[in-house]
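# step 3/5: fold
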Amino acid sequence: MLDLIQSLGAGTLNAVATLGRALLHLIQTVLAIGEPIRKFSLLNQQLFASGVKTLSIILVSGLFVGMVLALQGYNTLVRFGAEESLGVVVAFTLVRELGPVVTGLLFAGRAGSAMTAEIGLMKSTEQLSGLEMMAIDPYRRIFAPRLLAGFIALPLLAAMFSAVGVLGGHLVGVELLGVDAGAYWSQMQSAVSFKADVLNGLIKAVVFGLVVNWIAIFQGADCVPTPEGVASATTGTVVKSSLAVLGLDFLLTAVMFSV
């Protein structure tokens, strides 16, 4: 019994210490955010690495998710004679939930893991220490550009995911299943609200962008500088980011739609 209490206490203290280091790391990174703004080349490089290189999987996934939503939604709505509301169902599902959430998960798996592996490799080969010896702040040169680039890229990718998903729904619903195109677009336009739907989805994407990139950068900077440590940190980024996205999605949804 004492061993169990001791292990629980040690685990709790370790979790609190890790959270404290992560918060201090985030504060220092945010304070250094002016560097990539002044030197746009740093930001541009990371926007390409985290945004452009993730675009293909986002577009393909968005297209197929929209097509599946249209197919499933049509099979349900046709039972009630409401198949003309298919556009509303597809748009609501993508803009409110699946757009930000699936984009956050895909971003964590593709860009977040690559970011952690890159920073972890820099730490294991003592490149970060080398920068400090040359009086170059790693927070300004390494961490801040990646945090800002991911913070910008993820909401844009989520918007593209939702837009391509709506087009995929049109492809299946209108072109394949015969739903009236005018009804598909007009009902969507009248039902989807910018403030209640689009803006809420954008807020989720912004929050996910901050949290996923924070986790990815900290996992790389805090990893054990060995091959096993880098591999463990990369896996931890995907797991922790995915859980954070899903948990925050529930909290944000509860707050947004209870007001």
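# step 4/5: annotate
The chain has one domain: 2-256.
# step 5/5: archive (pending)
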